[in-house]
Design a protein that fits this description.
CATH architecture: Sandwich
Order of helices and strands: HEEEEEEEEEEE
Bound molecules: calcium ion
Oligomer: single chain
CATH superfamily: Galactose-binding domain-like
CATH topology: Jelly Rolls
Shape: globular
Distance between the termini: 34 Å
Length: 186
């Protein structure tokens, strides 16, 4: 390899490191719940699933997905993912898509105790910064999958983005999630 090329490659690597991720790359690995975690057979890759704690890996026909089950009234059941962001990404727009459906969710003591998706940015001290305002909630029964799209901006000072499908203190019911994607948009 010539010096010229080596220099060019080094430059490319540096620019990839400083500009963060490119638009259009789906950074939500395992968002479709199809692949199995080779280290933990019976669980989906990239997810911490525990049926004893109300989260399970379900199959329907050819499709696999996440299910949250309210095992005890008033308790919270959730799974957790996190994505790290770089200063180079501040101000960039992100788009997240997924689908959800639910069965027999009885709301808890407050009207917002329902099935939902918590998303938030945190700084390096673990403090929440500038939450994403709109989050989809579901209650009752929505038998068909519903496609959801969320768009937001990476706020200054963010270190990570957290995604938490959750059954939030409901009395009963199940909530299904599938096909998460997360990407930067131009
Ligand atoms: Ca799937």
């Amino acid at each position: 390899m010539s010096k010229h090329w080596m220099g060019l490659c080094a430059l490319l690597i540096v620019s990839m490191m400083t500009t963060g991720l490119y638009a259009g790359d789906n950074i939500f690995k395992g968002g479709d719940f199809e692949a199995e975690n080779p280290k933990k057979p019976g669980t989906p890759a990239h997810w911490g699933i525990n049926p004893e704690k109300g989260s399970s890996w379900e199959t329907e026909g050819e499709n696999k997905f996440l299910r949250l089950t309210s095992m005890e009234s008033g308790k919270m059941y959730m799974v957790y993912r996190q994505f790290f962001v770089k200063p180079a990404d501040y101000g960039k727009k992100m788009k997240m898509t997924f689908k959800m459906r639910c069965n027999g969710i009885e709301k808890g003591q407050k009207s917002w105790f329902s099935g939902t998706l918590f998303i938030q940015f945190k700084n390096s001290e673990g403090k929440k910064i500038k939450g994403v305002s709109k989050i989809p909630r579901m209650a009752g029964t929505h038998a068909e999958w519903e496609d959801k799209v969320l768009e937001f901006e990476v706020p200054e000072g963010a270190e990570k983005f957290e995604v938490m499908p959750v059954l939030f203190n409901v009395k009963a019911g199940t909530m299904d999630f599938d096909d998460f994607t997360l990407e930067y948009v131009d």
